[in-house]
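Let's practice the habit of predicting before peeking. Look at the sequence and jot down your guess about where helices and strands might fall. Then scroll down.
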Amino acid sequence: MKVKDLFKKMAVRAGIPETDAKFIAAVDALPDFDVDDESVANPLTNNLITSAEAEADSKIKGKFTAEALNGIDALVNPVLAEFMDQAEIDALKGDKMTTKKLTKLIEKAKAAKLATGNSAETAKAMENLNNEIAKLKTDKDSEIATLTSKHKRERYFDKLAVKVTSRNDVTDYAKAKEGKRVLADFEDMLDTLGGVLDVETGKVMKKDDPTTALFIDHKAVDADMVMEKTLSDNKYIKVSDPADTTIVTTKTSEGVNQSSAAAKNLSLAKDNTK
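Done guessing? Here is the structure:
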Protein backbone atom coordinates (compact mmCIF):
# COMPACT_ATOMS: atom_id res chain seq x y z
CA MET A 1 0.00 0.00 0.00
CA LYS A 2 1.20 3.51 -0.78
CA VAL A 3 2.06 5.52 2.32
CA LYS A 4 -0.23 8.29 1.07
CA ASP A 5 -3.17 5.86 0.81
CA LEU A 6 -2.43 4.50 4.30
CA PHE A 7 -2.27 7.99 5.81
CA LYS A 8 -5.47 9.02 4.04
CA LYS A 9 -7.31 5.89 5.21
CA MET A 10 -6.26 6.40 8.84
CA ALA A 11 -7.07 10.12 8.75
CA VAL A 12 -10.56 9.61 7.32
CA ARG A 13 -11.28 7.02 10.01
CA ALA A 14 -10.20 9.60 12.57
CA GLY A 15 -12.88 11.96 11.23
CA ILE A 16 -10.80 14.34 9.09
CA PRO A 17 -12.79 15.45 5.98
CA GLU A 18 -11.15 14.36 2.73
CA THR A 19 -11.81 17.82 1.29
CA ASP A 20 -10.01 19.68 4.09
CA ALA A 21 -7.34 21.88 2.50
CA LYS A 22 -4.72 21.27 5.19
CA PHE A 23 -5.35 17.54 4.99
CA ILE A 24 -4.93 17.52 1.21
CA ALA A 25 -1.70 19.51 1.53
CA ALA A 26 -0.38 17.06 4.13
CA VAL A 27 -1.16 14.08 1.87
CA ASP A 28 0.49 15.75 -1.14
CA ALA A 29 3.62 16.42 0.94
CA LEU A 30 4.05 12.75 1.85
CA PRO A 31 6.63 10.73 -0.09
CA ASP A 32 5.27 8.39 -2.76
CA PHE A 33 6.58 5.02 -1.63
CA ASP A 34 5.11 1.66 -0.63
CA VAL A 35 4.80 0.31 2.90
CA ASP A 36 4.58 -3.40 3.53
CA ASP A 37 0.95 -4.50 3.97
CA GLU A 38 1.67 -7.41 6.29
CA SER A 39 4.08 -5.76 8.72
CA VAL A 40 2.91 -2.11 8.58
CA ALA A 41 -0.38 -1.29 6.82
CA ASN A 42 -2.55 -4.16 8.08
CA PRO A 43 -1.48 -3.89 11.77
CA LEU A 44 -2.21 -0.14 11.71
CA THR A 45 -5.63 -0.42 10.09
CA ASN A 46 -6.69 -3.51 12.03
CA ASN A 47 -5.36 -2.78 15.52
CA LEU A 48 -5.95 0.98 15.87
CA ILE A 49 -9.60 1.90 16.31
CA THR A 50 -11.45 5.15 16.89
CA SER A 51 -13.37 5.99 20.06
CA ALA A 52 -16.66 5.49 18.21
CA GLU A 53 -15.53 2.04 16.98
CA ALA A 54 -14.41 1.12 20.50
CA GLU A 55 -17.76 2.11 22.00
CA ALA A 56 -19.56 -0.06 19.44
CA ASP A 57 -17.22 -3.04 19.86
CA SER A 58 -18.98 -5.70 21.93
CA LYS A 59 -15.70 -7.33 23.03
CA ILE A 60 -14.26 -4.08 24.39
CA LYS A 61 -17.56 -3.11 26.01
CA GLY A 62 -17.84 -6.57 27.56
CA LYS A 63 -14.29 -6.40 28.91
CA PHE A 64 -14.79 -3.03 30.60
CA THR A 65 -18.20 -4.02 31.96
CA ALA A 66 -16.80 -7.27 33.37
CA GLU A 67 -13.95 -5.42 35.10
CA ALA A 68 -16.40 -2.99 36.66
CA LEU A 69 -18.85 -5.70 37.76
CA ASN A 70 -16.05 -7.72 39.35
CA GLY A 71 -15.60 -4.86 41.79
CA ILE A 72 -19.31 -4.84 42.53
CA ASP A 73 -19.26 -8.58 43.20
CA ALA A 74 -16.56 -8.02 45.81
CA LEU A 75 -18.97 -5.71 47.65
CA VAL A 76 -22.14 -7.76 47.11
CA ASN A 77 -20.83 -11.17 48.16
CA PRO A 78 -20.21 -10.24 51.84
CA VAL A 79 -23.77 -8.87 52.10
CA LEU A 80 -25.32 -12.12 50.93
CA ALA A 81 -24.81 -13.76 54.31
CA GLU A 82 -27.17 -11.24 55.94
CA PHE A 83 -30.12 -12.40 53.84
CA MET A 84 -29.40 -15.96 52.64
CA ASP A 85 -28.44 -19.33 53.98
CA GLN A 86 -25.22 -21.03 52.90
CA ALA A 87 -26.85 -23.18 50.21
CA GLU A 88 -28.29 -20.12 48.46
CA ILE A 89 -24.99 -18.29 48.72
CA ASP A 90 -23.10 -21.22 47.18
CA ALA A 91 -25.60 -21.36 44.31
CA LEU A 92 -25.22 -17.66 43.58
CA LYS A 93 -21.41 -17.69 43.77
CA GLY A 94 -21.39 -19.90 40.70
CA ASP A 95 -23.44 -17.32 38.82
CA LYS A 96 -21.41 -14.69 36.98
CA MET A 97 -24.40 -12.39 36.52
CA THR A 98 -24.03 -9.58 39.05
CA THR A 99 -27.53 -8.31 38.25
CA LYS A 100 -29.00 -11.66 39.35
CA LYS A 101 -27.27 -11.34 42.71
CA LEU A 102 -28.69 -7.86 43.21
CA THR A 103 -32.15 -9.04 42.19
CA LYS A 104 -31.93 -11.92 44.67
CA LEU A 105 -30.90 -9.55 47.46
CA ILE A 106 -33.88 -7.28 46.73
CA GLU A 107 -36.26 -10.27 46.77
CA LYS A 108 -34.86 -11.42 50.11
CA ALA A 109 -35.18 -7.94 51.58
CA LYS A 110 -38.81 -7.67 50.47
CA ALA A 111 -39.55 -11.10 51.91
CA ALA A 112 -38.00 -10.09 55.21
CA LYS A 113 -40.19 -6.99 55.29
CA LEU A 114 -43.35 -9.02 54.68
CA ALA A 115 -42.37 -11.58 57.31
CA THR A 116 -41.69 -9.09 60.07
CA GLY A 117 -44.11 -6.30 59.19
CA ASN A 118 -43.12 -2.67 59.14
CA SER A 119 -40.81 -2.80 62.06
CA ALA A 120 -38.14 -0.15 62.46
CA GLU A 121 -35.46 -2.82 62.09
CA THR A 122 -36.79 -4.00 58.72
CA ALA A 123 -37.19 -0.45 57.48
CA LYS A 124 -33.59 0.25 58.45
CA ALA A 125 -32.43 -2.89 56.67
CA MET A 126 -34.29 -1.83 53.52
CA GLU A 127 -32.78 1.64 53.69
CA ASN A 128 -29.29 0.21 54.11
CA LEU A 129 -29.80 -2.16 51.20
CA ASN A 130 -31.10 0.58 48.92
CA ASN A 131 -28.15 2.76 49.87
CA GLU A 132 -25.78 -0.12 49.16
CA ILE A 133 -27.36 -0.73 45.75
CA ALA A 134 -27.14 2.99 44.90
CA LYS A 135 -23.48 3.04 45.94
CA LEU A 136 -22.74 -0.03 43.83
CA LYS A 137 -24.32 1.61 40.79
CA THR A 138 -22.35 4.83 41.34
CA ASP A 139 -19.11 2.90 41.77
CA LYS A 140 -19.78 0.89 38.62
CA ASP A 141 -20.57 4.00 36.55
CA SER A 142 -17.43 5.71 37.87
CA GLU A 143 -15.23 2.71 37.08
CA ILE A 144 -16.63 2.35 33.56
CA ALA A 145 -16.07 6.07 32.96
CA THR A 146 -12.46 5.74 34.16
CA LEU A 147 -11.78 2.74 31.93
CA THR A 148 -13.38 4.46 28.94
CA SER A 149 -11.28 7.60 29.51
CA LYS A 150 -8.13 5.49 29.78
CA HIS A 151 -8.96 3.69 26.53
CA LYS A 152 -9.53 6.97 24.66
CA ARG A 153 -6.22 8.39 25.94
CA GLU A 154 -4.32 5.27 24.86
CA ARG A 155 -5.84 5.39 21.38
CA TYR A 156 -5.00 9.11 21.05
CA PHE A 157 -1.37 8.48 22.00
CA ASP A 158 -1.28 5.59 19.49
CA LYS A 159 -2.19 8.14 16.80
CA LEU A 160 0.54 10.51 18.02
CA ALA A 161 3.07 7.68 17.76
CA VAL A 162 1.98 6.96 14.17
CA LYS A 163 2.49 10.64 13.31
CA VAL A 164 6.03 10.52 14.68
CA THR A 165 7.10 7.23 13.10
CA SER A 166 5.71 8.20 9.66
CA ARG A 167 7.70 11.46 9.44
CA ASN A 168 10.82 11.49 7.26
CA ASP A 169 12.39 14.41 9.12
CA VAL A 170 12.42 12.59 12.49
CA THR A 171 15.51 10.64 13.56
CA ASP A 172 15.52 6.85 13.77
CA TYR A 173 16.40 7.16 17.46
CA ALA A 174 13.12 8.98 18.08
CA LYS A 175 11.15 6.44 16.04
CA ALA A 176 12.59 3.48 17.97
CA LYS A 177 10.32 1.51 20.29
CA GLU A 178 7.30 2.59 18.22
CA GLY A 179 7.84 6.23 19.18
CA LYS A 180 7.31 5.58 22.89
CA ARG A 181 10.44 7.56 23.80
CA VAL A 182 8.96 10.64 22.10
CA LEU A 183 5.57 10.11 23.78
CA ALA A 184 7.23 10.07 27.20
CA ASP A 185 9.04 13.32 26.38
CA PHE A 186 5.76 14.73 25.03
CA GLU A 187 4.10 14.16 28.42
CA ASP A 188 7.09 15.73 30.18
CA MET A 189 6.80 18.75 27.90
CA LEU A 190 3.09 19.05 28.70
CA ASP A 191 3.92 19.07 32.40
CA THR A 192 6.70 21.63 31.91
CA LEU A 193 4.33 23.95 30.02
CA GLY A 194 1.76 23.57 32.78
CA GLY A 195 -0.83 21.91 30.58
CA VAL A 196 -3.04 18.83 30.35
CA LEU A 197 -4.20 17.24 27.10
CA ASP A 198 -7.87 16.99 26.18
CA VAL A 199 -7.86 13.82 24.04
CA GLU A 200 -11.37 14.57 22.77
CA THR A 201 -10.31 17.82 21.04
CA GLY A 202 -6.49 17.71 20.90
CA LYS A 203 -6.43 21.02 22.78
CA VAL A 204 -4.15 21.70 25.74
CA MET A 205 -5.78 23.09 28.87
CA LYS A 206 -4.27 24.65 31.98
CA LYS A 207 -3.14 22.06 34.52
CA ASP A 208 -4.45 24.14 37.42
CA ASP A 209 -7.73 24.88 35.61
CA PRO A 210 -8.64 22.17 33.05
CA THR A 211 -11.64 24.23 31.87
CA THR A 212 -9.38 27.00 30.51
CA ALA A 213 -7.25 26.72 27.37
CA LEU A 214 -3.48 27.16 27.73
CA PHE A 215 -1.96 30.08 25.79
CA ILE A 216 1.70 30.72 25.03
CA ASP A 217 2.77 33.93 23.31
CA HIS A 218 -0.91 34.75 22.79
CA LYS A 219 -1.48 31.48 20.89
CA ALA A 220 -3.73 28.64 22.00
CA VAL A 221 -1.63 25.52 22.55
CA ASP A 222 -2.63 22.21 20.96
CA ALA A 223 -1.11 18.74 20.78
CA ASP A 224 0.68 19.45 17.48
CA MET A 225 2.44 22.50 18.95
CA VAL A 226 3.57 20.51 21.99
CA MET A 227 4.81 17.68 19.76
CA GLU A 228 6.82 20.05 17.55
CA LYS A 229 8.42 21.64 20.62
CA THR A 230 9.16 18.17 22.01
CA LEU A 231 10.87 17.08 18.79
CA SER A 232 12.80 20.35 18.50
CA ASP A 233 13.96 20.66 22.12
CA ASN A 234 15.08 17.03 22.25
CA LYS A 235 16.87 17.29 18.88
CA TYR A 236 14.70 14.58 17.33
CA ILE A 237 14.57 16.45 14.00
CA LYS A 238 17.22 15.47 11.45
CA VAL A 239 19.85 18.15 10.79
CA SER A 240 21.21 18.61 7.25
CA ASP A 241 24.98 18.79 6.78
CA PRO A 242 26.05 22.47 6.50
CA ALA A 243 27.17 23.72 3.08
CA ASP A 244 30.91 23.95 2.45
CA THR A 245 31.87 27.60 3.06
CA THR A 246 35.62 27.17 2.42
CA ILE A 247 37.03 30.12 0.42
CA VAL A 248 39.63 29.14 -2.14
CA THR A 249 42.18 31.93 -2.59
CA THR A 250 44.53 32.60 -5.52
CA LYS A 251 47.52 34.86 -5.82
CA THR A 252 47.41 37.62 -8.42
CA SER A 253 50.38 38.91 -10.29
CA GLU A 254 50.57 41.78 -7.81
CA GLY A 255 50.97 39.23 -5.03
CA VAL A 256 47.61 40.03 -3.37
CA ASN A 257 45.48 37.08 -2.22
CA GLN A 258 42.00 37.07 -3.81
CA SER A 259 39.12 34.64 -3.92
CA SER A 260 38.74 32.67 -7.14
CA ALA A 261 35.79 34.79 -8.29
CA ALA A 262 37.58 38.06 -7.49
CA ALA A 263 40.70 36.92 -9.34
CA LYS A 264 38.64 36.06 -12.39
CA ASN A 265 36.92 39.46 -12.37
CA LEU A 266 40.27 41.21 -12.02
CA SER A 267 41.66 39.32 -15.02
CA LEU A 268 38.67 40.28 -17.17
CA ALA A 269 39.01 43.93 -16.18
CA LYS A 270 42.65 43.91 -17.26
CA ASP A 271 41.80 42.39 -20.62
CA ASN A 272 39.18 45.08 -21.27
CA THR A 273 41.66 47.87 -20.70
CA LYS A 274 44.11 46.60 -23.29
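How did you do? Strands lie at 195-198, 203-206, 209-213, 215-216, 219-220, 249-251, 257-259.
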